[in-house]
Write a structure and sequence with these properties.
This protein is α/β, with parallel strands linked by helices. It is built from 12 helices and 10 strands. Strand 7, helix 6 and strand 8 form a beta-alpha-beta unit. Helix 3 crosses helix 4, helix 3 runs parallel beside helix 5 and helix 4 crosses helix 5. The C terminus is likely disordered. Keywords: ATP-binding, Nucleotide-binding, Transport.
């Protein structure tokens, strides 16, 4: 099972520039969380701070029972072994074939022999669908395959936390859909805590259990997926609707006069679209951390837009969910979350 991450009042500055301040959130153990935000709001900086590559100016980042900013170097080094990281471009070594790229952390951080390394590497390559590509160089494969190779490398030390820095960057919509399904399947299989930084709205709407949004140097909102997807916050509505109307401007944020002019013209970021069903694992089982469709909305008295949980096959998942869980036999914990 994954490790809980608890962030309290975290602040990061570069000189006089504040990247974000007083960020507080909890990434529940074993769940998939997504962090959204306009470009330049410090999402990647947040990931680097979580893994201890950057030190915050203020605040705490608890990884289980360890407060990362206060750890001595030896304990920080050990705590980093809890993490696997998928970088934006895969960050593969161009002169190494895929096998050696994926084996690198094992050779660097463990004393395993080559027989054991080969077993682990091939196991992780099979998990991401790369068996048969062991001898290829990064320059000989597609962007989607490089992402999967980077993910296999992130998995070889069996991390309890996996950070994804814009995994959909540079991928077409079809490859992004395949990668999203792979992420959900891996979470169901290994139970690690996942945090995904992304700009892809479809990923944010269908993959995670929890969503957060960074804007104006602060965390606007973080919580269960349906909380954000039904929010009336203008910046949330603008971002999820991909509209020019709203607080987000071309460079970063709009000033008061621009917002007043939009309001006077009757412009509005628009209502949020219907909430789609959450992506299910390929094998049909319910993830232990998965919430029943509509559970948060019912608990908080929020009425979703009509058709909010109807999928491409016309199934209404609010009605279908209990039958689906019953058809799976003995329901895992995710099947009864309300």
């Amino acid at each position: 099972m994954g490790v809980e991450i608890r962030v309290e009042g975290l602040t990061k500055r570069f000189g006089r520039q504040t990247i974000w301040e007083d960020v507080s959130l909890t990434l529940p153990a074993g769940e998939i969380s997504v962090l959204l935000g306009p470009s330049g709001t410090g999402k990647s900086v947040f990931l680097k701070t979580l893994v201890g590559l950057l030190k915050p100016d203020r605040g705490n980042a608890w990884i289980g029972d360890r407060n990362l900013p206060q750890l001595p170097e030896d304990l920080l080094y050990e705590t980093r072994k809890l993490f696997g990281v998928l970088f934006q471009d895969g960050a593969l070594f161009g002169s190494m074939n895929l096998f050696d790229n994926i084996a690198f952390p094992l050779r660097e951080h463990t004393k395993k022999n080559e027989t054991e390394i080969k077993r682990i590497v091939l196991e992780k390559m099979e998990m991401v669908g790369l068996i048969g590509a062991e001898g290829k160089l990064p320059g000989e494969i597609s962007g989607g395959m490089r992402k999967r190779a980077g993910l296999a490398r992130a998995l070889v030390l069996d991390p309890e936390i996996i950070l994804f820095d814009e995994p959909d960057s540079g991928l077409d919509p079809v490859r992004t859909a395949y990668l999203n399904q792979l992420i959900v399947d891996l979470n169901a299989q290994i139970g690690a805590t996942f945090l995904i930084v992304t700009h892809d709205i479809n990923t944010a709407r269908t993959v995670p259990d929890n969503i957060g949004l960074l804007f104006r140097r602060e965390l606007v909102m973080f919580g269960q997926r349906e909380m954000l997807l039904s929010s009336e916050e203008p910046v949330v509505r603008q971002f999820l609707n991909a509209r020019r109307v709203g607080p987000i401007g071309m460079s970063e944020e709009k000033d008061v006069s621009e917002l007043e002019a939009e309001a006077a013209a009757g412009n509005d970021p628009g209502k949020l679209p219907p909430i789609p069903p959450q992506l299910m694992p390929s094998d049909g089982r319910v993830r232990p951390t998965q919430h029943a469709p509509g559970a948060w909305l019912r608990a908080h008295g929020v009425t979703p837009p009509p058709g909010s949980f109807i999928d491409d096959l016309g199934r209404n998942w609010i009605d279908e969910w209990p039958r689906y869980v019953a058809s799976m036999g003995a329901a895992p914990a995710g099947g009864v979350r309300k």
